[in-house]
Amino acid sequence: MMNTICIMCPMGCPLTIEEKDGVITVQGQTCPRGKKYGEQEYSAPVRTLTTLIRRADGGMASAKTSAPIPKDKIREAAEYVGKLTVSADSKIGDVVEENFFADGVNLVITGIA
Amino acid sequence: MIKKYDVVVIGGGPAGMAAALSALKKGAKVLVVERDVRLGGILNQCIHNGFGLHYFGEELTGPEYADRFVKLVESEDIDVMLESMVLRLTPDKKVEILSPEGYITVEAGAVVLAMGCRERTAGAIAVPGTRPAGVYTAGMAQKLCNMKGYLVGKKVVILGSGDIGLIMARRMTLEGAKVELVLELMPYSSGLKRNIVQCLNDFDIPIKYAHTITRLEGSPRLTGLYYAPVDENRNPILEKEEYVSCDTLLLSVGLIPENDLLSGMDVEMSPITSGAVVDENRMTSIPGVFSCGNVLHVHDLVDNVSREAEIAGGAAADYALGNVTAGDTVSVRATDGVRYALPQRITKGGEGKVDVFFRTVDVYTKKRIVVEVDGNEIYSRKTMILAPGEMEKITLARQDLVGDVIVRLK
Ligand SMILES: Cc1cc2nc3c(=O)[nH]c(=O)nc-3n(C[C@H](O)[C@H](O)[C@H](O)COP(=O)(O)OP(=O)(O)OC[C@H]3O[C@@H](n4cnc5c(N)ncnc54)[C@H](O)[C@@H]3O)c2cc1C
Ligand code: SF4
What we know:
The complex is a heterodimer.
Chain A: E1 2-5, E2 14-20, E3 23-27, H1 32-43, E4 46-47, E5 50-55, E6 60-65, E7 69-70, H2 74-82, E8 85-86, E9 95-97, E10 107-112
Parallel strand pairs in A: 5-8
Antiparallel strand pairs in A: 1-2, 2-3, 4-7, 5-6, 6-10, 9-10
Chain B: E1 3-10, H1 14-25, E2 30-33, E3 49-51, E4 60-61, H2 62-75, E5 79-81, E6 85-89, E7 94-99, E8 102-113, E9 117-119, H3 122-125, E10 135-137, H4 138-148, E11 155-159, H5 163-174, E12 178-184, H6 193-200, E13 207-209, E14 211-217, E15 224-229, E16 242-245, E17 248-251, E18 255-257, E19 289-291, H7 302-320, E20 329-334, E21 338-342, E22 345-347, E23 353-360, E24 364-365, E25 368-373, E26 376-382, E27 385-386, E28 392-397, E29 405-409
Parallel strand pairs in B: 1-2, 1-8, 2-5, 8-19, 10-17, 11-12, 11-17, 12-13, 20-29
Antiparallel strand pairs in B: 3-4, 6-7, 7-8, 9-18, 14-15, 15-16, 20-22, 21-23, 23-28, 24-27, 25-26, 25-29
Helix pairs in contact in B: 1-2, 1-7, 4-5, 5-6
Bound molecules: flavin-adenine dinucleotide (FAD) and iron/sulfur cluster.
Iron/sulfur cluster binds near residues 6, 9, 29, 31 and 34 of chain A.
């Protein structure tokens, strides 16, 4: 069983998600979007990582995953990025790594601080 | 030599950039003055995503959203002065600027105010105890972390559950700090549900509603603090005080428009928004002086900032180029659960539609938004939920606005 809040609208319905014999049920939602969100959060929750990367010249760049990656990989991915250094002339849109903690997802530069 | 421009935009954040581009499209000669070393404003430090879904139809991070506008501004015939701070604005629209070239005065046909906002601190700091190091506003911590790569502390408590504080809870956790607790004075969060879930719950960071700080401890650096639940009058119940050890306190207790430049001028201000009172073109009570973005009222969505600034910039160009005729206005008043509505004035007799933005006083479920003119309902919409943290928009037909307008909840 899992408890969470639906984030699809400001109502923020409290959801209870349960699995019995392979069937997932969602309770607490006010509309169908909550059911879909609850099922996703239960079976395969994903998050976009936005974080910082050190530049070779000592400055900072910001980066994101081009698409959400599995939620349980977020901390590990952030730690990994913390050890990377990108070149001083990095620019917005540069791909730092391909297939970053998920197939088809890239780690891309979003800004130069 | 005195320089002259049709439109001078003060501030080069998302509001200033959108206003400048829109003024240029109308044929105005435009100057943007920005005190920072680069354009982009607060967006440069907001490395999280959630920007641009409405304006660009895709989810961008702050720097990416800013970059799209910076590239446009740089490719167009817009003059930009960086590291240049506007120190004074006069009612006859002379703009006095401290720049790397010295003190410069620019004569403007019209001025667009786009100075953004700053973080509240005063009320929140008024807690007993020591005045230790280690107390930051959430935005200051964000700037140090995201622009300089400097983590302000290791054991963190956050006061206030505004979005900046929530975003920083996640940011600092991912950077290796431990966020012990978030305290919120109100019984609900002023931040987005999404941020509660993805910035706190995802990392098992507890949030205590209807709680506040009672005492700070430590010298010279913060070592811990006491907190307690509050009663219905928001006074702390001291018998229930608890202690948490921490080296850092982040304040995320709201934003306030940065309108110091207007203090010497006779501008009509709204005590509720802390911004100027404006008409549908975002013109203030001083003809030719316009206001948009967070300096006018605090926005939660940058997309709305860009749209509002386009209105102000275009209208400023029209004013400077002499393409406007002044007309009578009707007032727009907020009551019954509506905290404020903006614009506060609308010119009578216009055609087409006009958008009115508003915020509610409290969280309300199943209310009807009602707009009345001379006692007649001209607009009505049912809502599931309304919250102070979410700006609402209603679109009115201008032909209906024959008298003063009242926005209320029923
Ligand atoms: C921490 C944080 C998180 C946010 N998260 C989101 C989000 O997830 N999604 C979203 O859509 N929106 C978000 N917002 C809101 C959005 O970023 C702001 O509403 C928007 O940046 C406001 O734009 P602005 O141009 O009015 O102000 P700003 O971006 O603050 O720009 C004002 C500019 O004016 C300059 N200036 C001020 N005074 C002077 C002067 N006297 N002379 C010269 N220059 C001056 C400043 O240096 C600054 O560059 C967030 C805001 C903050 C603060
Ligand atoms: S279930 Fe529907 S009404 Fe409830 S929060 Fe989700 S989207 Fe909103």
